Amino acid sequence: MDIVLSLLVLTSIALALGSIALFRRGGPYRRQAVLMLVLAAVMAINLVIWTLPTPEGKSLSSEAQKQRAPR
pTM for the whole thing? Predict the structure, then answer.
């Protein structure tokens, strides 16, 4: 699960930087740049949902890791 969350962070950063580069280039790529920013935002929100602790102090990612642990 840690690898997935790390890849999610790296991918959202790459999408945000790529969209900034497309915005600067201008031309017909503005729509793709906006969609890349939207996707990066959705990925960041998913990351927050999976890692934000609940009032009990647990997160979805920690619960998923516990369920996959060998017994």
Answer: 0.76
